[in-house]
Amino acid sequence: MTTYLGNKFSCCRLRVRFTAAILLVALFTSGCALNAGREQDLLVPIDQSTFLDPRSGKHWMLERSGRLNNPHEVQQYIQEFRSGAGESWRLPTQQELYDLFARFDLKENGTVQIKLEGNYWLTDETGNVHAGTWEIGDQCGPSRSFFTRKAGYVRAVRP
What we know:
By secondary structure, this protein is of the alpha+beta class. The chain has 3 helices and 7 strands, in the order αβββααββββ.
């Protein structure tokens, strides 16, 4: 009887070890798959002046404009910019700018490095142009609040 119980316990220990080994392999391979998917989702430099957000499909300018003080200067800048860089470039919406800031907050920018500090010109739902910024909140975890400003930079985007 002792021999039978010894074999039974030995068999159970073997099952536990085998199950633990399978769980460890599954844990490590799922982590690798998770990281591989994340790398495909990071911001991607396209050339010396633009980068791509693969999640949204939008292209962004790496460099921002100089400081512009009113909507007239912004419209003039965008017109001049389009004539040199292409007609599809435009001001981002408030949500697009938030999404871009969030990618950097969550360290999803890959090798792309840009200046986020400062105020930016954007368009609202009705097409009005205004300056504002998403400032980091003081809550637990990444959060931002939007504040309207009087002047700012342009970081152009295109679909």
